[in-house]
Amino acid sequence: MSRELDENILAATQLDTLAVRAGISRTAEGEHSEPIFMTSSYVFDSAADAAATFAGEQEGNVYSRYTNPTVRTFEQRLAALEGAEQAVATASGMSAILSTCMALLKAGDHVVCSRNVFGTTTNLFGKYLAKFGVEVSFVSLLDMELWRASIKPNTAMLFLETPSNPLCEVADLGLLSNLAKENGCLLVVDNCFCTPALQTPLALGADIVVHSATKYLDGQGRCMGGAVLGSAQYMTELVTFLRTCGPTMSAFNAWVFLKGLETLRLRMDAHSKSALEIANWLEQNPAVEKVFYCGLESHAGYELASSQQKAFGGVLSFQVKGGREQAWRCIDGTRIMSLTANLGDAKTTIVHPATTTHGRLGDEERLAAGISESLIRVAVGLEHVDDLKADLQRGFDAL
Ligand SMILES: *Cc1c(COP(=O)(O)O)cnc(C)c1O
To answer: How are strands ordered across the β-sheet holding 186-190?
Structure first.
């Protein structure tokens, strides 16, 4: 790495600068934009050189399941934004969560997991970890007494997302981090909804952050990817798992994500600004029963979100007056928003959680989670907010 690059990075403390500059290491070609290293393996100058690199006696790339310069640039940049000692990139968000569990848990361990996590995460914990002798207790995200009461002598990990999907419930990361420390277990936070532009869980006491890069880190719905971040001690275990088991990120995807990071803060601010405006507008709309967005003063998580996050994010949900029929009519009445369960895209998405993202839950479980038949989730994109309001009004006019 040249002196100029070193100094750029060492002198920078602001997220906006790190998002554009961190992790760059130029090749002898002098390229300005980051190159994509689409290569599975690497060559050596001599047999002795190969032997020393394989033995770990000298630095160097061997094989892209182990290391790849483009992936490494993405890892270093994301680590700088999250304030993490090290980041490890993975093939998807789910492989980030799986790799964390495989690397840091063992048979006989116990995990306490929030009930309000991504549906596939619930399946991973409930179905696959159980198969390998890891026991899981699911708790309500906001019930601190239940978190405390669920901890056992063999509890090794607490796992959660905040704010939650789709009701935007906000967990107190400081309290949960104290609970984890008192009981000698790891606090793992899925920071997909906020991204480091809005929230840095490691600074609030979490041990590990996981990401689905597929969402806001990409920001334009192009690539699958994920990441795990934390201290070098834990990331060494993650690296060993990835090298052995292989759910690594492709160099091309790493390049897309790393360019995505350059505009992350600007995008998150824009998503958050439009979501807040739409949430306020929905609260005044006669067709709407209730709005769930932690940026509204009427929301139970408002104070906590204001202290823990820089802004409130792009995802909100609301109940229309009526039931499933009215919710479906409203969704079908929109013309601009994409009817899809994805989020974190420049394109706004709209979905009916009760029959899609949360469709596998039993009726009772779904109601206990607050997912009513009249609930609609909107992941606000980057279109003009006036057009988005007009589109939702088109939906309400169809009721
Ligand atoms: C999408 C998502 C995941 C899973 O990520 P993939 O990249 O789809 O594997 C995990 N957590 C949250 C909060 C998500 O939204």
So the answer is: 86-90, 226-230, 208-212, 186-190, 155-161, 110-114, 135-139
* Cβ(190) – ligand 1 distance below 6 Å: yes
Whether the CB of 249 sits within 6 Å of ligand 1: no
Would you say the CB of residue 92 lies under 6 angstroms from ligand 1?
Answer: yes
| Residue of the CA atom closest to atom 2 of ligand 1 | 212
**Atom number, ligand 1, closest to the C-alpha of residue 161:** 13
Query: What tens digit of pLDDT does each residue of 242-258 get?
Result: 999 999 999 999 999 99
Whole-angstrom Cα distance, residue 140 to residue 135? 17
Q: What's the predicted TM-score (pTM) here?
A: 0.95
* CA distances to 83, 389, 394 from 331, in Å: 39, 13, 9
Contact predicate 264/211, CB 8 Å: no
Q: With 60 as the cut, is the pLDDT of residue 219 above it?
A: yes
Taking residues 376-396, what's their average pLDDT?
98
State if residue 366 touches ligand 1 by the CB under 6 angstroms criterion: no
CATH of 264-397, one of 3.30.450.180, 1.50.10.10, 3.90.1150.10, 1.10.1740.10: 3.90.1150.10
Any atom of ligand 1 within 6 Å of the Cβ of 118: yes
User: Tens of pLDDT along 297-318?
Assistant: 999 999 999 999 999 999 999 9
Average pLDDT over residues 152-172: 97
